[in-house]
Amino acid sequence: MSGSFATAVPSAIAGSAGAISLLSDIAKNGLRGELASRLTRGDQAQPNYVSDVVATVLAGAGDARASDIHFTPGETELTILWRIDGVLQPVATLPRKLAANVAARLKVLADLLTYRTDIPQEGRLREGSSDAEMRLSTFPTLYGEKAVVRLFAGTGRYQWPSDLGLPDDIQHGLLGLLRETAGALLITGPAGSGKTTTAYACLRELHRESGAGKSLVTLEDPIETVLTGVSQSQVNRSAEFNYATGLRSLLRQDPDAILVGEIRDRETAETVFQACLTGHLVLSTFHAGSAAEAVSRLGDMGIEPYLLRTGLLAIICQRLFRSLCECAVWSDDETAKLGFDVPRVRVSVGCAACDGTGYRGRMLLAELLDPNAKDVGRAILARSDATELHALAERAGMLSMNQRAAQAVAAGSLSPIEVRRVLGFRGSC
Questions:
Q1: Which of 28, 190, 313, 318 lies most in the core, judged by the most C-beta atoms within 10 Å?
Q2: What is the DSSP string of 319-344?
Q3: Which pTM does this prediction carry?
Q4: Which residues touch 240 (CB under 8 Å, ≥6 apart)?
Q5: What gap in Å lies between CA 360 and CA 362, rounded to an integer?
Q6: For the segment 51-103, what is each residue's pLDDT rounded down to a tens digit?
Q7: The domain spanning residue 50 has which CATH number?
């Protein structure tokens, strides 16, 4: 996320003097400490107190590179947390009586219905003069509305595949796949692994290469970033405009390349493969723990093996890992290695630069499964399970996520603790 207040806070709240002066105090006292102090020492009787709280939290989250902010009401207090580098961190607590007003203020900024507290709502927080964007989601809970703000990276970041930090071999393979005129390229991983960011970078690359020579279209839920040269559409379930029906209509719009925001059901999956087999390049995201698991999940959805074998260009599975801060130190303690077969590892320590966490920023690791690789295609047609398919892909030359993580640990880029947090203990590293 952007580290600048100007690109992180909508214009409707950027005028708060308390929020603007936050950055100078952060330099002296540390981000979370200063933010918590500001939120609790204000005069709650003042009419603009809640507005200043919201403005200050959004400003601080932008400076902290947070991806999400959680406003969670409890029995006695409102807890504010934000997610930095994939991990939720507590920020401050406020009196429970302020929860409804904080949620209402956020809904005003997102142009939502403040009087409806019994249904989920979604809306955008965005500054008209900035490329930064935030999205608000509210949800009724036992103690009131929980509000979560998602902060999207500005359009000036992660523009191209070369900006993503993909391993060199996968980046080279991805650029080659984008030159194909038909087939399905699936970008997989869990929620929050950067799938949509990768998909957007691919579309920008297609537009850069072809200009107006190709019709590029999307169907998303929601549209996260506006892309130049791309016709973007958003599904509307209340109007029965879902992925499957929208995609069928898009095929009659003479597209060359289509981004389908996510494959969620069998009908959408079938339409994606019909599209890629009729002369369209289709990109989509899909939730799966590995590239091989994605094939198995599609099979479980009822997609015929011959469609998978013929239609798939490749499957990329990616994960984001917290990078060690420069304060990390080397250790040869066997306990710290957590099963990694390396002479020594770097372990987090914590300093002012990383706010005591030991980590700063994130790095992307990925694996790419090629269905045309030796024996892999036959395994897909034979409905082999994910374990066998993964083993065959490794024998054919695929570097798995675990293998790449082990290399990063040996190089001192990743902590074994972080790898186990993201990937767990299954499989060999």
A1: 318
A2: EEEEEEPTT-EEE--HHHHTT--SS-
A3: 0.83
A4: none
A5: 7
A6: 988 998 998 888 888 899 999 999 999 999 999 898 999 988 999 999 999 99
A7: 3.30.450.90
